[in-house]
Design goal:
This protein has 160 residues and is an alpha+beta fold. Strands 1-2-3-4-5-7-6 form a 7-stranded mixed beta sheet, with helices on both faces. It is globular, with a radius of gyration of 15 Å. It starts with a strand and ends in a 9-residue tail after the last strand.
């Protein structure tokens, strides 16, 4: 039987989470070339109070996402990644659902994100979730990507 994807909030930096983020960095290096200034390390992220979730399928880790707080109204989606072999399983959707629910519970009004232009699967997922492209926003790390936002209005929530 094909098990469904499970999402859990990460309890600190585990070796599993570190491996997923390392896999993401290698994936991005393959897409864009090594640009270490583009990546915020997992240690830096956790020091700034970022929350991570991990997706598992058949008890194996298949993806992760992080939520950072920018200010009282805005949160930032960071480090969304699903292993290429696990794409199409619903892992990305479930990770975004967990992140969005957390943002709502925190009282956020908007989710912001930056992604690379070659990450077409991620861009399509964000658009299905109601994210709209926007101009660069303060605090971005890389600054060379595409920028998206989603207002967490009642009519826009869980639109996917």
């Amino acid at each position: 039987m094909n098990a469904s994807v499970q999402i859990s909030c990460a309890d600190g930096i585990s070796s599993v989470l570190r491996q997923l983020v390392d896999d993401l960095d290698r994936y991005l290096d393959d897409l864009y070339g090594a640009e270490p200034e583009a990546y915020v390390s997992i240690d830096e992220l956790t020091q700034s109070g970022v929350t991570f979730w991990i997706a598992t399928k058949d008890d194996a880790p298949v993806g992760c996402v992080a939520l950072g707080v920018l200010n009282e109204d805005d949160v930032e989606l960071k480090r969304l990644f699903v292993l290429p072999a696990a794409r199409g399983t619903g892992a990305g959707r479930k990770l975004l659902e967990a992140l969005e629910q957390s943002a709502i519970e925190r009282g956020a009004k908007r989710i912001l994100l930056e992604t690379g232009p070659r990450q077409t699967d991620a861009i399509a997922l964000f658009e299905r979730f109601g994210f709209k492209q926007r101009e660069i926003y303060p605090g971005t790390v890389w600054g060379k990507g595409l920028f998206f936002e989603k207002y967490l209005t009642p009519e826009n929530r869980k639109k996917h």
